[in-house]
Amino acid sequence: MRLIRVPAAALLLAVGACLLSFAHGQGSAALYNLTARYEGSSLASIFGVSDDFAINQAVVGAWQAQLAQRASTFLEVPLNQVVVRSFAIEQQAVGVRRRTRELSSLDLAVAAVSSGSSSGSSSRRQLLQSGAGTTVALLATFDVLDTQPGAHAAWDFTALATALGAASVAVNGVDRSAGVLVGFFASPPPSPRPGAAALRGQPPLAPQLFAYFDSMLAPGAPGRSREVVWYDDSDFLEERLDGTPLNLVWRNKTACFTRPTCGACSRAWGATTAPYVVTLYFRDPVQLATIAIRQVNAPAVKTVQLLPWPAVNISGAPAPRTGFLGPPLFNESADITPCPGTLTLAVPRRRSGLAEAVPVGGSQAELPKALRRSAVGGVRISLNAPPTGASQRTVVEWVRFTGRALYPLDASEYSM
User: Which of 34, 140, 196, 204 has the least C-beta neighbours within 10 A?
Assistant: First the structure.
């Protein structure tokens, strides 16, 4: 996800103009969070290019700028008061039940097809491989700041969809709080940004309701000396040991094997002792679409359970919640995943909560009830015990997640 930045001088002029309008009693500002839905037979048809491999950063940038310009013209607001926040990709079969919902940041989707590469995110590859009988939807979420809501008629969002060339426009929320101007025109955060661990308990670097992620590793797991170690902790490498859970959150490790091979790997989690369970943690509340578990020796996943957020003590976050978030997502007596192989689990759409609107007035400290029901703080994976006398142990190389983070403390953490 990328934020559209405008020159500091323009921001100062805009803020000054807005404050002046308030001084003359022209009303309070309102910040609209909207999602425009674009549909087509392929992503290329939405972007107006020949095929998906023609999509590059220039194409995306021009399309994004056009969306903002059309919204600005139709709503009669300055261009710098329209900010495209994030994107998601959705695919479904035509005339058949909805297929697994795949979510991705647009940056990852574009990277997956740049330079004609066939690599990239799993959801992106599925889109590239889709044939006839499917519909692809691009969901563009953007903010519009209305500084004079009382000076014009109510906006017609159906007509806005037509002006944008979209199938529909949905209103996710409207913020009319006194600080909306300051939040919208906040200066860009300094670069480089500190890790999210250092920011816990402080205001977000930049207001953002959610951030999509695709094929992301969990940020935390149990360490040698404490219940959770985050991937960006300064002592991460000291806490990590060969074969331990922290290998499942280690960002810079090399792959276990360069070709399909089954065997032991020091850079993975090796289930060597009972109870054969690993728990992965999320710092921000997340809603999950898919979970992919890569096993490179003796596949034996028994159950996969979701934990409510927060699932562990996190500085600056509410007290941990106990129990599980609904029934097991996976519960089988035998794992038929080939070796090596990846067990991919899809979270049902209703259970995932990804269709829920994220209110502008919410926060991690006061998570709205509708989101609290699906906010995941951790995932617990249990394995079947190895047969008596078995010399092999299950080895999990990685666990990757697709979904979105709610009210992320540092949204850049999800664009890596």
Answer: 204
Walk along the chain (416 residues) in steps of 10 and give the mean pLDDT of each run: 38 41 51 88 85 75 90 91 79 40 39 36 39 68 85 89 93 68 48 45 60 93 94 92 95 85 91 92 96 94 97 92 95 90 92 91 90 96 82 90 92 79
Q: Is residue 181 part of a domain?
A: yes
Residues facing 111 on adjacent strands = none
Q: Is 401 exposed, middle or buried (0-12, 13-18, 19+ CB in 10 A)?
A: buried
In terms of residues, how long is the chain? Answer: 416
- Cα pseudo-dihedral 103, 107, 110, 113, rounded to 10: -80
Number of domains in the chain: 2
Torsion angle, alpha carbons of 243, 245, 251, 254, to 10: 20
Q: Please report, for the domain that includes residue 319, its CATH number.
A: 2.60.120
Question: Using an 8 Å Cβ cutoff, are 3 and 206 in contact?
Answer: yes
20: left (phi over 0), alpha (psi -120 to 50) or beta: alpha
Burial of 378 (0-12, 13-18, 19+ CB in 10 A): buried
Among 203, 101, 145, smallest CA distance to 11 is for: 145
Looking at the structure, do residues 233 and 132 belong to the same domain, yes or no? Answer: no
Ramachandran bin of 165, using left for φ above 0, alpha for ψ from -120 to 50, beta for the remaining angles: left
Q: What token pair was written down for 295? A: 């096993």
pLDDT of 185 reads: 54
Q: Is residue 255 part of a domain?
A: yes
In a domain, residue 207? The reply is no
Q: What is the pTM of this model?
A: 0.55
With 0-12 / 13-18 / 19 or more C-beta atoms within 10 angstroms meaning exposed / middle / buried, residue 103 is: buried
For residues 266 and 318, state if they share a domain: yes
Supply the pLDDT for residue 98. Answer: 35
- The domain of 227 spans 216-414
CA distances from 400 to 27, 211, 249, 262, 397 (A): 47, 16, 9, 19, 10
Helices 57-75, 106-113: inter-axial angle, 10-degree rounding: 140
Task: Evaluate the omega torsion of the peptide bond into residue 340 and state whether it is cis, within 30 degrees of 0.
Answer: yes
Instruction: With both helix axes pointing from N to C terminus, report the angle between 57-75 and 157-164 in degrees, rounded to the nearest 10.
Output: 140
With respect to residue 201, please indicate whether it lies within any of the assigned structural domains: no
